[in-house]
Every structure is written in structure tokens, then in C-alpha cells.
Design brief:
Blueprint (H helix, E strand, L loop, with lengths): L4 H15 L17 H7 L31 H18 L14
Helix pairs in contact: 1-3
Length: about 110
């Protein structure tokens, strides 16, 4: 998975506003992830981001370990970030909030 630099910058900037400055960062270390999203990102600019949901105070296990402690109380942050990314992207590309017009004959 290779992120578009433009989209990665966009995600980090939006994450800074949603999560607070200093609460997001680029992962510069290569990672051997298998993700179908990579095929889409070959065709259109894209960026994959990770939402940390581990509870570092109570769990010392990696993500796919059976004893991993999933902190569900922060999932709303991921939803908020994804929604804000969509709104910001659409606004920055000239797409307003108006509903699309229905084609004639529909």
C-alpha cells in the first residue's frame, strides 16, 4: 500500500483538527500489510490511516492477538474523523451540500 502524498497530508491535517494537534502522525516505517484498498489507491489518489484502539494501560498484546484489549469507547473518534474527511474532501473539490438533481424521466 503506497499512500498518495497529497491525500496523506490531507488526512493528517484533518485528523489534527478532529483529534487535536499532535494526536496524529505519519507512519514512515514500511509495513507488510495485505489490504485490497491498495488496488483502489493504484487508480485514484488515496491514503490509508490507522486508528489506535488498544488500551496501553491494561493490554500489552498486538492487534491480532486473542488477548488484545479493544477500547470501544474511542470508536466515535474514528467515525467523526471519517465523516470529516468526507465533508472536507467534497468541499475542497467544489461539491456542495445540495442534493443531486434527478435526471429527467426518472
Amino acid at each position: 500500500m503506497i499512500n498518495s502524498v497529497e491525500m496523506a497530508d490531507f488526512v493528517v491535517a484533518t485528523a489534527g483538527r478532529v483529534l487535536g494537534q499532535g494526536r496524529s502522525a505519519f507512519v514512515t516505517r514500511p509495513s507488510m500489510v495485505g489490504e485490497d484498498f491498495a488496488y483502489f489507491a493504484q487508480e485514484v489518489p488515496g491514503a490509508m490511516y490507522l486508528l489506535g484502539v488498544g488500551d496501553s494501560d491494561t493490554c500489552r498484546y498486538p492487534l491480532h492477538h486473542s488477548k488484545f484489549s479493544f477500547n470501544e469507547s474511542i470508536l466515535w473518534l474514528g467515525v467523526r474523523l471519517l465523516a470529516q474527511l468526507a465533508v472536507d474532501y467534497l468541499q475542497s473539490h467544489g461539491v456542495g451540500a445540495a442534493a443531486p438533481k434527478t435526471p429527467k424521466g426518472q
